[in-house]
Amino acid sequence: LDGLVVSEKVKSNNIDVKIPKSELEAEEKGAEEERPRESDSNILDVSSHYPRDKHISIQKHLADLEKLADVRQDERKPCPLCPEEKFRACYSHKLHRHLQNLHWKVSVEFEGYRMCICHLSCRPVKPNLIGDQTLSKMGAHYHCIICSATIVRRTDMIGHVNRHVNKGETESRFVTVRAPKSSCEVVKESATDVQVLPNHSTPQKTDSYFNPKMKLNRQLIFCALAVLAGERTPIECLDAFGATGIMGLQWAKHLRSSVKVTINDCNENSVTMIKENCHLNKMKVRLNIKEEDNDGTVGNGEENSDTVEVTKMDANVVMHLRSFDFIHLDPFGTSVNYLDSAFRNVRNLGIVSLTSTDISSLYAKAQHVTMRHYGCNIVRTEYYKELAARAVIAAVTRAAARCNKGIEVLLAVALEHFVLVVVRVLRGPTPADDSVKKVRYLIHCQWCEERVFQKEGNMVEENPYHQLPCDCHGSMPGKTAVLLGPLWSGALFNTGFLRRMLLEAVQYGLDEVQPLLKTLVCESECTALKHTTPHSAGDEYKQEECGVYIRTPNTSAESYLVHGKRRSEEVLRGAAKRQRAEHSAEHPPFYYNIHRHSIKGMNMPKVNKFLNYLSEAGYRVSRTHFDPMGIRTNAPLAQFKTVLMKYSTPTYVGAQAEGPLHLPGEIQVAEEVPAAAGVKAEGAELAEDDKSGVAASVFTQSCPAHCAAD
User: Fold this and answer.
1) What is the DSSP string of 686-703?
2) What string of DSSP letters covers 72-115?
3) Architecture of domain 591-650
4) How far apart are CA 56 and CA 622, in angstroms?
5) What kind and span of H or E run contains 611?
6) Could you report the per-residue pLDDT of 333-364, keeping only the tens digit for each?
7) CA-CA distance, 559 to 567, in Å (whole number)?
8) Where is the segment annotated Disordered (predicted)?
9) 214-289+306-455+467-496: CATH class
10) What is the pTM of this model?
11) Domain boundaries, the chain
12) In angstroms, what is the C-alpha Rg of the chain?
């Protein structure tokens, strides 16, 4: 009786059955052995260093997979990753080939582990058309080592793991344990250290986006802020999209007590990264009033030159709540959604800078997106980068005008990865009206790419083609021009501001941005680099940097002493007037690409020499940062082609035997321009020389034997 136990009732027959205790223990032991075959995550490999159990199909070596089968020479063993009905038990040599060929070779590798294909009943398949065979087949799949998901295709599994890697997701993230600090990379830029994740260069898949290619952009913004800090101190500046906080940390580290830096981001992980980077650079963090965690921070009442305020808000909210002197917007994509908030609370004579990275829409690759975001119609032209900058400034102008504020464009840069616009805010309805008047439409000829801004006025013209300098509409059938815009028609640069930016770049040792600033200074004055005119002898201090003269006001200390409130107000008003009248004569809009208008079969002159030729003809010329082969000039396109034709040489010597090169009709008409009178006379002499050359070539072709003998 001791060896018997009373078993549970069999419900079908309601009969008490007595089963020996030894048999019951054997059944329980067998059930425990079969349970790992049905589970996905109950078996833990001894060699695993992950804190969470993983599936048996994830192994480091093929030998570890064979150990699961307990392969012996004299016994048949089933495959640990296949059901009995798919692969029957076999001897060791056959099971070894099966595991190697059908599981190990088609595995997905990740950090030394192999995710082998699994045929167990982990992932049920859809029933077949015949309902009796729903359990006859099991779907082959892979188990993810990170999130335990089951993926059918191998290519999908590879993409699934890559997405985890791009997001910076590791095994420890799914067990609520912070990733080790060794996984973060420390990057140093401009004497500022920041921690970044391994996928920091992919903005869609990381919380802390850091792009090393935007270093030039960050240095330009720093120079603009340094110039503003020299005008008035202290200034409150905002980095609305902090990410890693690299830009705000550079401001606080180099400008120190001149600025009060606020770094904002709406992502919690980014805010945590910003706080760690502040401590990494030995700076204190001043949290927002709503923050409750004060670990390693200072209170709101304390002020310190090495203190950075970190906030976790939406960018529109933080700009609505507070006023700033300097605001920088650098979202992922377009920044038009934040312009209204930026201009609502920015202080008078403050600066708003925005970086737009939606290059596909601004560079006319997605024209419908440009119309949706900027309300602007553009096409792909030779001057598409400047077209993008003017479209952004037009959107900024309309946003500022809605807040009764005007703008003064200080800087507009369009490079391969971004479009940067820096504007100064002028409060009042009169500056707003003056700025809106500079937003016009552009008439662009699609045949010769000549362009001109539409004249002011509300009256409809009967034939707007008359405004174009070219005569393509008369010589070509159909419509030849398109209407682009609305675009900003004013100046893109402020010469005085750029010179002070160049001085700040030299002072802080920003070598990468200095060549670009020198090009911008020459472009704003529309002069060649070596023709940059120095200031008058009355200037107290001048510094020359590669042909560009930098003026530094050497005012005495007594000039900064202000006695009384009325005197200080007069000084502020005088400074505002000087800032508004700081720019010189506006540079000509747009530029021409010398390759686009070169003559086939002719070698065009060097760009610097061609600049001298146009300058000798009486036109203003300069290089442009928008295009390395672009030339900004006030010469019409016809005269541009005339000078280019004059100083071009044949590609090969035999080209002279083909006869003289006749200029196009539009170029022949343009020879009547007074500034090119000397060019026309020299062109006539060249034509006579070409005629004599043609006559000689005809004689040579008619008598080849005699010419050869001679």
Assistant:
1) HHHHHHHHHHHHHHHHH-
2) -TTS-B--TTS-TTTS--B-HHHHHHHHIIIIITT-EEETTEEE
3) 2-Layer Sandwich (3.30)
4) 69
5) helix 607-616
6) 899 999 999 999 999 999 999 999 999 999 99
7) 12
8) 21-45
9) alpha beta
10) 0.65
11) 58-125+138-166, 214-289+306-455+467-496, 591-650
12) 37
